[in-house]
Amino acid sequence: MKTIKLVIADDHELFRNGLKELLRKYNDIDVVGCVSDGIEFIEYYKNNQDIDIVLLDISMPNMNGFEVLDQIKDLNPSVKPIIISMHDEGNYIAKCARMGAYSYLLKNTDQDELIKVVRVVSKGKKHFSPKISEKMIDYMSDSTISENVLSKKETEVLELISKGNTTKEIAAMLYVSARTIETHRSNILKKLNVKNTAELIIKAVKMKLI
User: Fold this and answer.
1) Rg of the chain over CA atoms, in angstroms?
2) Looking at beta carbons, which pairs linking 20-29 to residues 24 or more positions away fall under 8 Å?
3) Rounded distance, CA 17 to CA 76, Å?
4) For tag attachment on the chain, is the N or C end more exposed, with fewer CB atoms within 10 Å?
5) Tens digits of per-residue pLDDT, 38-51?
């Protein structure tokens, strides 16, 4: 039987270590690495490309799970990401599914379900439990907002604004001028028909854009 080579990417050390100890009990699963954020995972992967699965948290510092999913598509689409998160909102689940996640597990998932998912995904099959699928379908059914209401770059700027970053900080993060960010911000305000940042955040949350 082929051993499943797996990396755990999560910023909570106790959770990482507990998960690693749990998985060590299974002869067909080999935890080859543990990292605390997305940047560490990307660097690890560049030096250790023989990976089947990454158990990936969404909320990590420096580079979050969404950004890692985006990078994986360019680095090696054969790496199969399984999201394991505390977030059970339909918008998170749908976004991860769109970005190539093979499964989405909550951190309170029981051991048997986790092992089942790891083994199914290792064979190249996607697996979303009925409960997770229902949350995703409910979100997609309830959402009346077009995914294309904002451009990809505008969505990126919106997410950075929502985290409290200033125009100069966002410009530095995206390697563009402050004037470019102000243009994006102006376009976002017009598209969402709001007047200021406070109204923008409230409406973006209601529209499930962030």
Assistant:
1) 19
2) 22/111, 22/114, 23/118, 26/115, 27/1, 27/3, 28/1, 28/2, 28/3, 28/4, 28/119, 29/3, 29/4, 29/115, 29/118
3) 26
4) N
5) 999 999 998 888 89
Write down the residue that tokens 């918008």 correspond to: 91
| pLDDT tens-place values along the chain, 210 residues long | 789 999 999 999 999 999 999 999 999 999 999 999 999 999 999 888 889 999 999 999 889 999 999 998 888 778 999 999 999 988 889 889 989 999 999 999 999 999 999 999 999 999 999 999 998 887 776 554 445 578 889 989 999 999 889 999 999 999 999 999 999 999 999 888 888 998 888 888 877 787
For residue 80, give every residue at least 6 positions away whose Cβ sits within 8 Å of its Cβ, in sequence order, or none. Answer: 52, 53, 54, 102, 121, 122, 124
For residue 74, CA distances in Å to 142, 171, 176 come to 32, 24, 22
**What would the pLDDT profile of 149-195 be if each residue is shown by its tens digit?**
788 899 899 999 998 899 999 999 999 999 999 999 999 998 888 88
CB 97 within 8 A of CB 82: no
